[in-house]
Automatic annotation (TrEMBL):
Pfam families: DUF6597, HTH_18. Gene3D superfamilies: Homeodomain-like. This is AraC family transcriptional regulator. InterPro entries: AraC_XylS_family_regulators (IPR050204), DUF6597 (IPR046532), Homeodomain-like_sf (IPR009057), HTH_AraC (IPR018060). PANTHER family: BLL1074 PROTEIN, HTH-TYPE TRANSCRIPTIONAL ACTIVATOR RHAS-RELATED. The keyword Ligase does not apply. Residues 125-221 form the HTH araC/xylS-type domain. Transmembrane segments: none annotated. It comes from the Bacteria.
Length: 221
C-alpha cells in the first residue's frame, strides 16, 4: 500500500510504501530521498517509467518538488537522471552512516527521514519555481525563456542542472502529469488531450506510450 502526506519541507511530500503489489513509477520531474532496510538512497529524475526490482520491502521517502533537490544534495540533477543511487555515493560515507543509524533508531523512521531532509533543505530558487509554473501552464518554451529573461541556452543549462533534462522534456513530463490527473478523475481521453495541452488524442496516446510504456487507458484504470 502506498500513502503520502504533505511534508514540512516546503513543496515536498512524505510517502511510505508497504510490501504488496508493485507498480511502476512514472516520470514527474521530482527527486526523492529514500530509506529502506537500513539504506539511504536517492532517486534521480526519471525520463521513463521505472519498474522497481528486487525483494518487496518497506520504503519511505521524501519527494521534492521539481528543481529543489539538487541544492539540498549538492549534486546536479543530470548526474542522477534515471538512476537510483546510494546516498553514500554523493555524501561522505561516515555522515551517511550516522544519518542512517539515526533514522533506523528513531521511534518513527519516516518522521526522522523527513527531519533529515528538513535540516538540509534550502529555500527554492524563485526562477526555477516560475519556470515550472510557466511550463505547467502549457506555455511554449520560448515564451518561458522570454518571461524569465533567459536565452534559450541559459534556460537549457539551468534546466539540466535543476531538473536533469532540458525544458522540452520537463514540459512533456509536466503535461503527462496533467493528463494523468485528468484520466484518473474519469475524464475521457479526448477531453484529456485538449485540457492537458496535446494536439489531439493520437498525440496524447503517443506521448503516454513513449514516457510510460503503457496506454492512456491503462494509466486511467
Amino acid at each position: 500500500m502506498y500513502e503520502e502526506r504533505a511534508s514540512r519541507v516546503r513543496g515536498a511530500v512524505v510517502w511510505t510504501k508497504t510490501p504488496g503489489r508493485e507498480g511502476v513509477v512514472l516520470p514527474d520531474g521530482c527527486m526523492d530521498l529514500l530509506w529502506s532496510e537500513g539504506r539511504l538512497l536517492v532517486a534521480g529524475p526519471d525520463t521513463r517509467a521505472y519498474v522497481p526490482e528486487g525483494e518487496r520491502v518497506f520504503w519511505a521517502g521524501v519527494r521534492f518538488r521539481p528543481g529543489t533537490a539538487p541544492a539540498l544534495l549538492g549534486v546536479p540533477a543530470y548526474e542522477l537522471r534515471d538512476l537510483r543511487v546510494e546516498l553514500a555515493d554523493l555524501w561522505p560515507a561516515s555522515e551517511v552512516r550516522r544519518l542512517n543509524d539515526r533514522v533506523e533508531a528513531a521511534s518513527d523512521p519516516v518522521v526522522e527521514l523527513e527531519n533529515v531532509a528538513l535540516e538540509r533543505a534550502v529555500p527554492p530558487d524563485p526562477l526555477l519555481s516560475r519556470l515550472v509554473a510557466v511550463l505547467d501552464a502549457g506555455r511554449p518554451i520560448a515564451t518561458a525563456a522570454d518571461e524569465l529573461g533567459l536565452s534559450s541556452r541559459q534556460l537549457h543549462r539551468r534546466s539540466l542542472h535543476a531538473f536533469g533534462y532540458g525544458p522540452k522534456t520537463l514540459s512533456r513530463v509536466l503535461r503527462l502529469q496533467r493528463a494523468l490527473r485528468l484520466l484518473r478523475s474519469g475524464v475521457s481521453q479526448a477531453e484529456t488531450a485538449v485540457r492537458a495541452g496535446y494536439a489531439d488524442q493520437a498525440h496524447l496516446s503517443r506521448e503516454v506510450r513513449e514516457l510510460t510504456g503503457v496506454t492512456p487507458g491503462q494509466l486511467g484504470a
